[in-house]
Design a protein that fits this description.
- Pfam families: ASL_C2, Lyase_1.
- It is an enzyme of class 4 (lyase).
- It catalyses: 2-(N(omega)-L-arginino)succinate = fumarate + L-arginine.
- This protein is 61% helix and 5% strand.
- With 459 residues, it is mainly alpha-helical.
- Strands 1-2 form a two-stranded antiparallel sheet. Strands 3-4 form a two-stranded parallel ribbon. A two-stranded antiparallel sheet has the order 5-6.
- The protein is elongated and about 100 Å long.
- It binds arginine (ARG).
C-alpha cells in the first residue's frame, strides 16, 4: 500500500506540494545500501535478544536482501509519497513479506536510523577520498622523481625570489595532501561510533544490544548519549571542513598550473585530454580542468557554511532542518572525489618544460641572496650585506647585466670582501644546492625527502 507509516493520527491526506517539499527521497536514495545494511544488523540483534523470533528475522533479512537486489537492478520504484529512503524501503518490505515486515522498526526511529545511515555512508566515502588522495600523491611523487634536478624560479609575491627545484615544488603539494589525508583519517576515527538505539531521542524500552549492532557493522563502539546520537552532525561538518582545506590546496595548485601553462610562463604542457579549445580563437588551449577545480572550491566552502548555519541554534534533539544536511554533504563528496580523480591523472600526464623553467630561474637576479650570504660569511653583518647587494642589483638593472656576468672588479666596487670564488656561488645549481638543511631545496635534501616519502608509502 502507499499509505504512510505514520498516517494513524491524521484525518486528511498530505497536501501534494507539501509531500514534494518535505521529501528527501530524491537525494537520500543514494544511501539505500547502508539503510539495508543497518536494518539487517538491527533485525539480527532483535532476534538475538528475543524481541522478534529467529524466523521473523530470517524473513525480514531475506526481504531486505531482495529489495537490495531490486534497487541494484533498477527495478525499484522510489515514491515521493513515502518521503525518504527509510520509509520507501520499509513500505516495500511490508508489501513483499507481509505484516511481519512491520516488526523491523521495533526499538528504532528514523532519527537514529538516518544518523546511522549517514555515518555508514560517509565512512565508505572517506575511504574513497583517501584512495584518490593517495593516487594524487603518487602522481606528484612520480613527477618529482622524473624531474628531480629541474630548476625553476621560486616566487614570493609572484616575483622571482630564489631558484628552487621543480621536484621540491611538487613535494610541497605532497606534504599538503599528506596532511589532508591525516585530517580525513581523523574524520573516519571520530565518526566511527554507532548511534542506533537512541530511538527518537531518549533511548528505547526494549532490551536491545547496541554493542552487538556496532560489532556487526564494524564500528569502534557505540555513542554514549541518545540525545547527542540523533542531534550530532559534527562528523559531516568535520568532513566538509577537511574537504574545504583539501580543495583550497587543489585550488592553489590549479592556479599555478593555469599560470604555468600560459604563453608567458610556458613551464608546463597539460595534456590535450584535460583542456578545451575556443569557439572563436583557433590558437587557444584552455586549462579548463584546473579552472573548474579552482571554481568548485567555492561550492565546497559554501557547503561547509551551509551545514554550519543549518546546525547553528538547533535545539536538541532531532529537527527536520537536519534533512538539509545531505545535499551539501553529498555534493562535497562528489566534488572532492571528482576533483582528486581528475587531478591525479592530469598531474601524471603533465609535461615539464625544463629549459623554459631554467631560463626563467636565471632572470630576475634570483641569486642575489646568495651574494649577500657570501658577503656575510666574510664577516659583514647581514643588514650591510643586503645594502651592498641591493646596490649591485641596481647597477645590474642600469647596465643591463646579470649578476653572474659582472666582472670581479665590478663586484668589488660594492664590497672589497668579494673575491674570485664568488662565481662558484652565483650559478643556479650552486644556489639551489647550498640549501641542504632538512626541508631545503638542495638536490640532496630533496632526494632525502623523496626517499622518505617512498618509504612511508611502502610502510
Ligand atoms: N529524511 C529524514 C532526514 O533525512 C529522516 C529522519 C526523519 N525523522 C523524522 N522524525 N521526521 O532527516
Amino acid at each position: 500500500s502507499q499509505e504512510k507509516p505514520w498516517a494513524g493520527r491524521f484525518t486528511q491526506p498530505t497536501d501534494k506540494f507539501v509531500e514534494e517539499f518535505t521529501a528527501s527521497i530524491g537525494f537520500d536514495k543514494r544511501m539505500y545500501h547502508y539503510d539495508i545494511q543497518g536494518s539487517i544488523a538491527h533485525a539480527r540483534m532483535l532476534a538475538k535478544q528475543g524481541i522478534i523470533s529467529k524466523d521473523e528475522a530470517q524473513t525480514i533479512m531475506a526481504g531486505l536482501e531482495s529489495i537490495l537486489t531490486d534497487i541494484e537492478k533498477g527495478a525499484f520504484e522510489f515514491k515521493v509519497s513515502l518521503e525518504d529512503i527509510h520509509m520507501n524501503i520499509e513500505a516495500r518490505l511490508i508489501e513483499r513479506i507481509g505484516p511481519v515486515g512491520g516488526k523491523l522498526h521495533t526499538a528504532r526511529s528514523r532519527n537514529d536510523q538516518v544518523a546511522l545511515d549517514v555515518r555508514l555512508y560517509l565512512r565508505d566515502e572517506v575511504k574513497a577520498v583517501l584512495a584518490y588522495l593517495d593516487a594524487l600523491q603518487e602522481s606528484l611523487l612520480a613527477q618529482a622523481e622524473a624531474n628531480l634536478a629541474v630548476i625553476m624560479p621560486g616566487f614570493t609575491h609572484l616575483q622571482t625570489a630564489q631558484p628552487i627545484l621543480f621536484s621540491h615544488h611538487m613535494l610541497a603539494y605532497y606534504e599538503m595532501f599528506k596532511r589532508d589525508a591525516g585530517r580525513m583519517q581523523d574524520v573516519a576515527k571520530r565518526l566511527n561510533f554507532m548511534p542506533l538505539g537512541a530511538g527518537a531521542l531518549a533511548g528505547t524500552t526494549f532490551p536491545i544490544d547496541r554493542e552487538f549492532v556496532a560489532e556487526q557493522l564494524g564500528f569502534a563502539g557505540v555513542t554514549r548519549n541518545s540525545l547527542d546520537s540523533v542531534s550530532d552532525r559534527d562528523f559531516a561538518l568535520e568532513f566538509c571542513g577537511a574537504a574545504s582545506i583539501l580543495m583550497m590546496h587543489l585550488s592553489r595548485l590549479s592556479e599555478e598550473l593555469i599560470l604555468w601553462s600560459t604563453a608567458d610562463f610556458r613551464f608546463i604542457d597539460l595534456s590535450d585530454a584535460f583542456c578545451t579549445g575556443s569557439s572563436i580563437m583557433p590558437q587557444k588551449k584552455n586549462p579548463d580542468v584546473p579552472e573548474l577545480v579552482r571554481g568548485k572550491t567555492g561550492r565546497v566552502y559554501g557547503n561547509l557554511i551551509s551545514l554550519l548555519t543549518l546546525m547553528k541554534a538547533l535545539p536538541l534533539a532531532y529537527n527536520k532542518d537536519m534533512q538539509e544536511d545531505k545535499e551539501p554533504l553529498f555534493d562535497t563528496i562528489d566534488t572532492v572525489k571528482g576533483s582528486l580523480k581528475i587531478f591525479a591523472e592530469m598531474i601524471a600526464q603533465m609535461k615539464v618544460r625544463a629549459e623554459e623553467m631554467r631560463l626563467a630561474a636565471a632572470r630576475g637576479f634570483s641569486t642575489a641572496t646568495d651574494v649577500a650570504d657570501y658577503v656575510v660569511r666574510k664577516g659583514i653583518p647581514f643588514r650591510n650585506a643586503h645594502e651592498i647587494v641591493g646596490k649591485t642589483v641596481r647597477y645590474c638593472i642600469e647596465t643591463g647585466k646579470d649578476i653572474p656576468e659582472l666582472t670581479l672588479d665590478e663586484f668589488r666596487e660594492f664590497s672589497e670582501v668579494i673575491e674570485a670564488d664568488i662565481y662558484d656561488f652565483v650559478t643556479l645549481e650552486a644556489s639551489v644546492n647550498a640549501r641542504c638543511a632538512t626541508g631545503g631545496t638542495a638536490r640532496v635534501a630533496v632526494e632525502r625527502e623523496l626517499a622518505r616519502a617512498r618509504a612511508e608509502r611502502q610502510g
